[in-house]
Specification:
With 711 residues, the chain is an alpha/beta fold. It has three domains: 284 residues, Polyphosphate kinase middle domain (polyphosphate kinase like, 2-Layer Sandwich), CATH 3.30.1840.10; 179 residues, Endonuclease, Chain A (2-Layer Sandwich), CATH 3.30.870.10; 178 residues, Endonuclease, Chain A, CATH 3.30.870. Helices cover 36% and strands 21% of the residues. Strands 14, 18, 19, 20, 21, 23, 24, 25, 26 and 27 form a ten-stranded mixed beta sheet that branches. Strands 10, 11, 12, 13, 15, 16, 17 and 22 form an eight-stranded mixed beta sheet that branches. Strands 2-4-3-7-8-9 form a six-stranded mixed beta sheet, sandwiched between helices. Helix 14 links the parallel strand 12 and strand 13. Helix 2 packs antiparallel against helix 3 and helix 12 runs parallel beside helix 13.
């Protein structure tokens, strides 16, 4: 990449050469730039201390997934000698080389920052993350007792010799590689899996990490790393042997599932089998202690069938995602100040025993929910009232990521018991939620709910709940549509927008969409919904072209697109064309952005902002000025080929004047004024924080929204 801020030779790129690879940022490298922004939050001392620790853990977890999916896919392309390149022109091998440089830098920076800055800062707050060598005699005695009573019975040392094959190393497991010598001086090798059923950070005091017996929180917390406890007590595992070396290592495997849907007689059983196979995927990364000897490295490299470029030597401890356990400490003084999500006025005083009141509120006008600033409770109440209301005939819903113990599933089961026609599309292919979704699908089926697993070759990512209610001599459709999942937990962590409506045409569109998903409906005309892969690309491109036409005719074209990712080449080229015509283009893209803003003659009128803060920015909001007749769409679809062409996605229009005012004149304006958590994308693909100009009031959009939605 070029140096920060440089436009490089791209400054000469003008005219219609919009296919030039120099105009596009690589998808994978942009994804890693996002991880750099997350790490930046961990390094921001304006954030509460345990929030900073949480961001370190998030970087670790995100990089795990990145290797399991993205790096694994690139390695497969190299093995298959795929020559096709993305719009930026980098070959798979070139991408892997760049990825290694960036991820090594990120992982080392995170490790060093945690050890050198956050651990001392935690110590000042009486949270002690100790190495085993730092324990005093009393602490060591307590930890050794814990090892003897709890850890030792769980451990299974596995030898590697002619009589014992090299053991399977499971995905994301933390292990100890042990080099020993027997009483004859012969070298031996063994592997010990650090049990993930025990706390990674072992409480030195029994109250550390929890509450005292009297229910009060302790003033101080002491922890020591589990792998260090095991390493210090190896003589109990190998009596009569001499310990030569002990080093931790961690394996990341290919977890990108390949589902042969067309060959599957039963997709549910096929998914169960494929998920079981995930743990046996090829190794794509081996993280090791940077002090590990070449002797042990060679043993691991040979038996895991990897090369040196797959090895990532790091300062310990490994597996930073486990640091999330510290966030569970009862130290609320070291976390963001909690707030109570609001209940929107139209449903604030509704009697939850009277379904008619809720449905009447929706008939009075569309109702917006902006999570986590607004509570998820009205969504749960909407479905519960539908389950209880004798006038409700049917409930149809898409479910993508439900989480643990989802209230939505219990309500759907209750609705089926009450005689409603309940049809649920459960997306089995929701990555890393497959097992959970399989379990809920089986439970729903077992209670007589109609469960559909989606269309062959397409993930169903849309968020739609449709309630069909008998009213008078006819029926009325009530809908809840959203940018986020029907997940009560993530609704408190992710920024998402949902809407209740009973618009007749949107209801008819939703019915057609469900028929498309559950049967053989070939409807490809929708009144108001943009549905992928049917009409979303065509409509989205037409909306951008319409804005270009407005600009050409002196009607001040303006686009504001808020999404998680912008990758699609055709959309990017259209945005370049819009910029060349003078359309103002404001992009709020949290994560991956393959468009280069600020290129003379190409993207001078495009501004890309990424906001990384307390909540994960997850809503998709697409605003078109339309010559003063503003149009806004919300929904589940990012601007990526997979969302537009290979998933079932829904974008829905905002029509209520009050809702349009809130989104256009309040929310989107606040996002563009953020000067605390906003970073601006530079032409070279790097990001910089916005500088607070003298006399300018600081504004953090997420904090502003907490206050704004309380009114």
């Amino acid at each position: 990449m070029a140096k920060k801020g440089e436009g490089t030779a791209r400054e000469s790129l003008v005219g219609d050469d919009l296919d030039n690879p120099a105009l596009f940022i690589n998808r994978e490298l942009s994804a890693l730039e996002f991880q750099r922004r997350v790490l930046d939050e961990a390094m921001d001392d304006k954030n509460p201390l345990l929030e900073r620790v949480k961001f370190i853990a998030i970087v670790g977890s995100n990089l795990d997934e990145f290797f399991m999916v993205r790096v694994a896919g690139l390695k497969k392309q190299v093995e298959a000698r795929v020559h096709e390149t993305p719009p930026d022109g980098l070959t798979p091998a070139e991408q892997l080389a760049e990825i290694r440089k960036m991820t090594l830098q990120l992982m080392r920076q995170a490790s060093e920052y945690f050890s050198k800055v956050l651990v001392p800062a935690l110590k000042k707050q009486q949270i002690y993350i100790l190495n085993y060598s730092e324990l005093n005699n009393r602490q060591r005695s307590s930890v050794e007792e814990y090892f003897r009573d709890v850890v030792f019975p769980v451990l299974t040392p596995l030898a590697f010799d002619p009589g014992h094959p090299f053991p399977h190393i499971s995905n994301l497991s933390l292990n100890l590689a042990v080099l020993l010598k027997d009483n004859k001086g012969k070298e031996r090798f063994a592997r010990i899996k650090v049990p993930n059923t025990l706390p990674r950070l072992v409480p030195v005091k029994r109250s550390s990490g929890g509450l005292r017996k009297d229910g009060t929180a302790p003033k101080s917390h002491y922890f020591v790393w589990l792998e260090q406890v095991i390493a210090a007590n190896l003589e109990r595992l190998f009596p009569g042997m001499r310990i030569e070396e002990t080093h931790p290592f961690r394996v990341t495997r290919d977890a990108d599932l390949a589902i042969q849907e067309l060959e599957a007689a039963d997709l549910l059983e096929s998914m169960e089998q494929t998920v079981r196979q995930r743990r046996f995927g090829s190794v794509v990364r081996l993280s090791i202690s940077d002090s590990m000897s070449s002797r042990i490295r060679d043993i691991l490299m040979e038996n895991l069938d990897i090369d040196r470029n797959d090895i990532y030597p790091l300062p310990g401890p490994l597996g930073r995602s486990d640091l999330m356990c510290l966030y569970g400490l009862n130290r609320f003084d070291l976390k963001e100040v909690p707030f109570k999500p609001a209940i929107p006025k139209p449903v604030r005083k509704i009697d939850v025993e009277d379904p008619e009141q809720f449905f009447a509120a929706i008939r009075s006008g569309d109702i917006l929910l902006h999570h986590p600033y607004d509570s998820f409770l009205p969504v749960v109440q909407f479905l519960r009232m539908a389950a209880l209301d004798p006038n409700v005939l049917a409930i149809k819903q898409t479910l993508y990521r439900m989480g643990k113990n989802p209230p939505v599933v219990d309500i759907l089961l209750e609705a089926a018991e009450n005689g409603k026609q309940v049809a649920v599309l459960v997306e089995l292919k929701a990555r890393f939620d497959e097992e959970s979704n399989i379990g809920w699908a089986r439970k729903l089926e077992g209670e007589g709910v109609h469960v559909i697993y989606g269309l062959l070759g397409l993930k169903t990512h849309s968020k739609v709940a449709l309630v069909v209610r008998k009213e008078g001599d006819g029926i009325r459709r009530y809908l809840q549509l959203s940018t986020g999942n029907y997940n009560a937990v993530t609704a408190g962590l992710y920024e998402d927008i949902g809407m209740f409506t009973c618009d007749e045409q949107i209801g008819a569109d939703a019915s057609n969409m469900f028929n498309y998903l559950t049967g053989y409906s070939a409807v490809n005309e929708y009144h108001k919904l943009l549905v992928a892969p049917i009409n979303l690309r065509q409509r989205m491109e037409a909306l951008i072209l319409r804005e270009i036409d407005h600009q050409r005719n002196g009607r001040q074209g303006h686009l504001i697109l808020k999404a998680n990712s912008l990758v699609d080449k055709q959309i990017i080229k259209l945005l370049y064309r819009a910029s060349q015509e003078g359309v103002q283009v404001d992009l709020l893209v949290r994560g991956i952005c393959c468009l280069r803003p600020g290129l003379p003659g190409i993207s001078e009128n495009i501004r890309v902002t990424s906001i990384v803060g307390r909540f994960l920015e997850h809503s998709r909001v697409y605003y078109f000025r339309n010559g003063g007749q503003d149009e806004i769409f919300l929904g589940s679809a990012d601007l990526m080929p997979r969302n537009i062409d290979r998933r079932v996605e829904v974008l829905f229009p905002v029509q209520d004047a009050d809702v349009i005012h809130y989104l256009r004149d309040e929310m989107l304006v606040a996002y563009q004024r953020d000067n605390i958590k906003a970073r601006r994308l530079l032409p070279d693909g790097t990001y910089e924080r916005l500088k607070l100009d003298p006399g300018t009031s600081p504004l953090c959009v997420q904090e502003w929204l907490i206050q704004a939605r309380q009114g």
